[in-house]
Amino acid sequence: MSNDFQNASRRRFLRNSLAALAGGAGFFGAPQSLSLINSAWAQQRGAECGGDYKALVCVFLLGGNDGHNLVVPRGNVEYGHYAQRRRGLSIPQAQLLPLQAQGAPFALGLHPAMTRMANLFNTGKMAVIGNVGALLQPVSRQQYDDRTARLPPQLFSHNDQQAFWQSLQVRSPTDITPATGWAGRLAELIQDSHNPCGRLTMNLSLAGANPFQAGSASEALSVDSGPIRAVESDREPGAVAELEAVYALGQGNPLVEEYRRATRSAIDNYAVLREVLAAAPALPTVFPPAPEAGDPPSARFAYALGSQLRRAAELISVRAALGQRRQIFFCSLGGFDTHDAQSADQPELLSGLDQALAAFHQATRDLNVENAVTTFAASEFGRSLTSNGDGSDHGWGNHLFALGGAVNGGRVYGAIPDLSPGSTDFAGDGNLIPKLSVDQYGATLARWFGVSDAALLDLCFPNLANFSVRDLGFLA
């Protein structure tokens, strides 16, 4: 909700209140009347702005994380199939972290670099969502091999699949309407009902512009993980006032007006952020520190993602001052395109991911919002089961995870594929065919977040109607 809208609402409230009070004998002689009206306004806004709080935190693993080495069969027979097909990429069986997975058809292990996540899984705070991928409709091996399946565009392209994963739209080359992402559509669906008093947009990006948070009539706010700076000038105090005056004037040219509006909005938003964050107490949680010379690469990855998640935790801590009952955060960590040196690089990446996620989960506990914050992993695609000699190539289906107090953890949702030779879980080219769609994954998150109407879910997730299961069940 914009400040203009809030100010207009307040003016209407004051006008009605003044009209009512003007009939009273002592109105013009009672200076305290305006104070009473302002108090009533605050109470009304408190009633509108109160209620439950929830946040979604997307952690996008850029490059396509190798899910086959994230969640690994641990039973002797199943591990034998895994080791045979992975060859030089396989993780030694004894190093796998045991997962006490309820209902799993065979024993599973987590990558040895994910010690903290294994503990969260085994204590019921994390769930694995098996074999998720970009789908327009269910696809069988026969359909894929015969090329009769309707598939997402440019299935193995990084840019195309990042865009599709985040938007879930197949757009015509001649379509000139602005593209939107499912977080952008989700925010616009519930803004009026769940976030009427927000001083900022519900969508807050800690990783720059992204398709995920783009709305049809709203934009995400990119927030730096470092110091928040507003427009200021120490040398020329009058320069800020002059700049403010320039940006207050509407422009006739549509392009110039859009630039003015966007810049004006950014100036206002950063002023709000600086004011609110400056007044907030420091977080008690310890996040991964900046790496020092001689530290392993995992320290760099932990700090890169941890800095984003620390700022997300800070924004959660000031949610009341921002008037936000709903927040959606976008964070990212790059480096997962492991065509080579995977056995050396992926453990470092996953260790950094593990450290950052564990710190953020602890922050939600320290802020007493553990049950109100759900963090979920995303990645544009999985990777090939077979090695290319030193790494893995672009694939399709992938294993993801969600964590938080509201997660029905300690379980695997979906399915871990059959890795035996001739398995129909894999296409003829060896790529894992997803059993669950991103639409189903996102709709499960959206239902928990506040969208209960089936028609609205279909608006947000355009391919959801093609799947019989609309809620995967990993959230309470």
TrEMBL record:
It comes from Tahibacter harae. This is DUF1501 domain-containing protein. It comes from the Bacteria. Pfam families: DUF1501.
